[in-house]
Amino acid sequence: MVSKYMAEQKPHPNRVVERVQTGVRMEKRLLKVLKGVAEYHEISLGDLLEGIVLHAFEGKSPFGQESLERIAALKGIYGLDLTAEDSHRLNEQA
Questions:
Q1: Where do the structural domains in the chain lie, given as residue ranges?
Q2: What percentage of the chain reaches a pLDDT higher than 90?
């Protein structure tokens, strides 16, 4: 099963965009799960993040049930126990 955002893009014409390189810092286990999801869908990490953000901006979920099950499995593999509730309470170790 392909994520919702990829399925929704197919009937629409491609859009030309300008992409820039960025150095974003992210929690290590979260990044591993995201890379696993991108690999599962055979897309780049950047494409995955763009899709997630564009859906979030419209209040939509970017993932279907099969993708959510895959994400849960990857979270278990990489020990990711963070939730949305933790998003504003993350601190780095010194």
A1: 1-10+30-82
A2: 78
